[in-house]
Amino acid sequence: MPAYNSMFNNDPNIPRLIGNVPLLPLRTKTRGPAYVLPQPNPPIPANESPDPDSESYDILDEVLTLFRANTFFRNFEIQGPADRLLIYGILFVSECLGKIRPHHSLREATKEVLNTALDLNFAIPGDPAFPLNQIYEPPRDRQDAEQLRQYLSQVRQELASRLLARVYDEDDAKPSKWWLSFTKRKFMGKAL
């Protein structure tokens, strides 16, 4: 059975690519270079995603939806540029879950995860420390590299806040054991 690929690969409106990473629109309040999608109407709770057919559904909703299923796969066939952003998102969610301990309250976990998301010293495609350089093309120049870093920083911050809303959905005092059961799994055997 193959891994689940992104539905945004079939999008007829091809977004701007830096290297081969697409700058897809996001439903976010975080500042950055991404085009901002409208909030769902009527509003939905922070721990839920809009319907995939909704104009508010974005790649980050898809990352969180497909994370648990795709984590079990060691191989992933890339069928389009959105899959590269999906891979990055899944690896980042794994990193964030590794920072959350079973005894952490929402406040402690927020501090750990947001520090990881806000750290600007992360590797981007083309950097020697980036773990998946064989499937990502580096940016053409320094300006593209800076824009990619800003976009991925925006993705990381929004993904971290949505993940925390799901992991602490039922209880602010302790995280969901169901989500934390995926901390030891490595998607494609890699980590950011």
Task: Provide an overview of this structure.
Helix 2 (about 80-100) packs across helix 4 (about 140-165). The chain has helices spanning about 60-70, 80-100, 105-120, 140-165, 175-180, and strands at about 15-20, 20. Strands 1-2 form a two-stranded antiparallel sheet. It has about 190 residues and is an all-alpha fold. It is built from 5 helices and 2 strands; from the N terminus they run E-E-H-H-H-H-H.
Mean of residue pLDDT? Answer: 87
DSSP summary, beta strand count: 2
Sheet bearing the most strands, described? 2 strands, antiparallel
> Could you give the distance between the termini?
25 Å
Helix content: 25-40%
How large is the count of helical segments? 5
Spatial sequence of strands, sheet with the most strands: 1-2
Overall 3D form: globular
Strand content bin: under 5%
The arrangement of helices and strands along the chain is: EEHHHHH
Assembly of the depicted chains: single chain
- Spans of at least 5 consecutive residues whose pLDDT stays below 50 are none
Radius of gyration over C-alpha positions, nearest whole angstrom: 16 Å
Structural class: mainly alpha
Structural topology:
Elements: E1 17-18, E2 21-22, H1 59-70, H2 81-99, H3 106-118, H4 142-167, H5 177-180
Antiparallel strand pairs: 1-2
Helix pairs in contact: 1-2, 2-4, 3-4
